[in-house]
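To the structural biology subgroup,

Please find below the input and predicted structure for Malate dehydrogenase (Oxaloacetate-decarboxylating)(NADP+), which we are adding to the shared reference set this quarter. The sequence is reproduced verbatim from the submission form. If anyone notices a discrepancy with their own records, reply to this email rather than editing the shared folder directly, so we keep one authoritative version.
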Amino acid sequence: MSLDDDAREYHREDPPGKIEISTTKPTNTQRDLSLAYSPGVAAPCRDIDGDSEAAYEYTAKGNLVGVVSDGSAVLGLGDIGAQASKPVMEGKGVLFKRFADIDVFDVELDASDVDEFVGTVSAMEPTFGGINLEDIKAPECFEIEERLREEMSVPVFHDDQHGTAIISGAALLNAVDIAGKELDEVRVTFAGAGAAATATARFYVSLGVRPENIVMCDIDGVLTTERAEAGDLNEYNREFARDVPAGGLAEAMEGADVFVGLSAGGIVSQEMVRSMAEDPIIFAMANPDPEIGYEEAKEARDDTVIMATGRSDYPNQVNNVLGFPFIFRGALDARATEINEEMKRAAAHALADLAKQDVPDAVVKAYSDQPLQYGPDYVIPKPLDTRVLFEVSAAVAQAAINSGVARRDIDLETYHEQLEARVGKSLEMLRVVLNKAQNDPKRVVLAEGNDEKMIRAAARMESEGIATPLLVGDRGTIESVVETRGLDYDPRVVDPTADELEEYADRLHRLRRRKGLTRREAAELVRTDPNYLASVMVEEGDADAMLTGLTHHYPSALRPPLQVVGTKEDADYAAGVYMLTVADRVIFCADATVNRDPDADVLAEVARHTADLARRFNVDPRVAFLSYSDFGSVDNPGTRKPRDAARALRDDPAVEFPVDGEMQADTAVVEDVLADSYEFSELDGPANVLVFPNLEAGNVGYKLLQRLGDAEAVGPMLVGMDKPVHVIQRGDEVGDIVNLAAVAVVDAQQE
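Predicted structure (tokenized):
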């Protein structure tokens, strides 16, 4: 089927459309319904009647945006009317929810004039925390936004104007920096003089471009003072009329440093590009076809052409989704009365700064492993980069506070954590450990220090104050990666080919000589096997923790630290634990990586270590030993093993957490099953530590939860070691490495 047919089927599939309303409070009992509606609802109504601000406390207003349109200027479709524009407005709601967790009511108004439109929208102020105007034709859109901003005390934002302005403004800040030019000196030519072009030109002036350096063209040519005096221009684009000779776009582009296209496809030739100043900046943003194609523009010049379009299949996509969800998020959370110029500039600068940072591997993968690094082909972040939420929303909220339009103060450190919680429970849980690590960073040795991911992870650990990383590897290789990636990082390197390692060889020999290891073999191992060198560094106290496994199979990566560091005095076994977050629940699964067929003593030991790990995440453990049997319903050696482990822990006075088993998985995690059928259980709620009967079950169980249950997994985290050692999975991303480093630091803090 064609794309059009696929889209029709996508929208038509039951239930039709793309959005729905869901409840956020229980509605299961008569009591629930009496709280949700009559008679209980009267209490919050009375409170709001006494103080209108209480609406933000008792209702969804603070997270609800109205996407409002008359369908008079739908992108690529024109004036199709209010009803036909509804799929677009629903789609806008999807983006608000997907990227910033903002709820939306789409409102399509069949309004005949500006007065009717403004009156209708302003009357809806009690419903919404903000208004996003969409697809309204010029020049009416200017008047509508101006009047609504004056009449309403919630943020009003016309995305078609300001979204493109802010995103391309961020791109401009970085493009000018890369091209070695000054913002107040560049000459800018606009193709297009409608709402988006006019708002973008105004915003560029707000960023520092001199108004006299902007030339704007419409379909009839350059906007000149002569045309303005003749009444050929509207009151909004008239401000960009210049006292220059009449001419077309070709003349306007001669010598220009920047071209901004917000008009129509195919109107710029390679000759026009060649007429521009050296190292030109070209933002050809007409959709779906830009004013000049990406390849054509690049091929027109021998110098550096920084090119951006509105398309996702080329570098530097100017996509409004980088702006409006996060701008509204910050504005709503600060309860701003408007979205002002300071907030828009803050958004642009935050986007520009983010593009200069190291790009997460997950983002690179999402864009087919494109090389994403600050430079001519990467001047703005990608929409799927979750950091945009944290950086832009926080910057906007702070700007609202600083400019005096916020009705609520925000602690930015706490706010950042609140935003992380909106992305997923795993980030919220990891923040607990990251904060602990930052309070007292420790030395973490990274055995695979030559690997680019390890080097980037080390740079992040240091910049975020999580750890002091020590990289085992070739000093020249590591420094070359730092330079190539443009990392602001001075690495600490342990180079096996250059540094003095005799002390480590002696120690390894003393530890393993009764296992048949000669002194010469020990010296060879610390020179050639970074896992042995890193393990001895930890054992000797020259590092506080160790990470490895990125380029090794799990068993081969685990063997050296087990031989050198060993397990705790009170432990005979190590185990691998995954933390899984499913919706708002957190579950620790053990053992999923180490012990193939543990007996009852091993299971009990694994449970103790995993409970300790849960506490490091500020989770009070409730431990369930899993089986295919419920509390003796099947009796054989396999079911007795978890039953005996549970009994041993219950009988141990040193164990301070609830534990029970054996039980089936649904019994362990479904509160109703546990309470209704097994009220005698020691668990006072659903289990959050699941101990699997063997390695096969553990590995299968956590992967099913991760893949079919859409659970987010953190780990594996190695427990039971005498000193902190974690073996990451092959192919893990930089963020995974940093997170496990934080866990290792917290482990070391407790040593």
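Summary notes: The radius of gyration is 31 Å. The first strand starts at residue 64 and ends at 69.

Regards,
Lab coordination
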